[in-house]
């Protein structure tokens, strides 16, 4: 990855390596490996790491996102974000995010004069908003079909 560690897009080389890793793990059929052997290229020794299944699934999922060229960040669900970071994660402007906060659509609290948003609350809003938008799109498509508009 390049640029700053926050929201840096993977390089083409990194995405290709991640795609190769995902394909290699898929070839194992079924559950991802729970014991991984890691070594630096051309450098012994090999380090063996045992992983719970949940972590192995997360690793495969992260590799899949990177392979698709997406930026990936890992943070605890209870982490608190500034309004700018929250806006960046939602892909909206900071002023628009503040409108959502002030309307009570996303819970937040203040530290002095600064607003802070929990990741879990931001994810809940994003998921609910995605569902709402999908439902509206489905309704519009159904209405267009009913009217014979070719959708």
Architecture overview:
The chain has 151 residues and is an alpha+beta fold. The protein has helices at residues 12-26, 53-67, 83-90, 94-102, 119-146; strands spanning 35-40, 43-50, 80-81, 109-111, 114-118. The strands form two sheets. Strands 3-5-4 form a three-stranded antiparallel sheet. Helix 1 crosses helix 2 (53-67) and helix 3 (83-90) packs across helix 4 (94-102). The radius of gyration is 21 Å and the shape is extended. It starts with 11 loop residues before the first helix and ends in a 5-residue tail after the last helix.
CATH topology of the largest domain: Multidrug-efflux Transporter Regulator, Chain: A, Domain 2
CATH class (first level) name of the largest domain = Mainly Alpha
Residue-averaged pLDDT: 85
Strand order of the largest sheet: 3-5-4
Number of separate structural domains? 2
Query: Which stretches are low in confidence, meaning pLDDT under 50 for 5 or more residues running?
Result: 1-5
Give me the number of helical elements. Answer: 5
Q: Radius of gyration in whole Å, from Cα?
A: 21 Å
Number of strand segments: 5
CATH architect. name of the largest domain: Orthogonal Bundle
Indicate the overall shape: extended
- Give the biggest sheet: 3 strands, antiparallel
Q: What is the percentage of strand-forming residues?
A: 15-25%
Order of helices and strands: HEEHEHHEEH
N-to-C CA distance:
41 Å
How helical, in percent, are the residues? 40-55%
Secondary-structure-derived class: alpha+beta
């Amino acid at each position: 990855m390049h640029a700053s560690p926050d929201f840096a897009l993977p390089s083409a080389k990194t995405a290709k390596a991640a795609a190769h890793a995902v394909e290699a793990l898929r070839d194992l059929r079924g559950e991802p490996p729970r014991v991984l052997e890691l070594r630096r290229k051309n450098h012994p020794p090999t380090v063996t790491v045992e992983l719970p299944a949940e972590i192995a699934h997360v690793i495969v999922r992260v590799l899949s996102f990177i392979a698709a060229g997406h930026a990936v960040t890992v943070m605890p669900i209870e982490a608190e974000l500034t309004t700018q970071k929250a806006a960046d994660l939602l892909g909206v402007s900071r002023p628009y995010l503040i409108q959502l906060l002030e309307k009570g659509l996303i819970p937040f609290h203040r530290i002095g004069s600064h607003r802070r948003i929990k990741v879990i609350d931001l994810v809940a809003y994003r998921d609910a908003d995605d569902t709402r938008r999908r439902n509206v799109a489905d309704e519009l498509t159904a209405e267009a079909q009913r009217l014979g508009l070719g959708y």
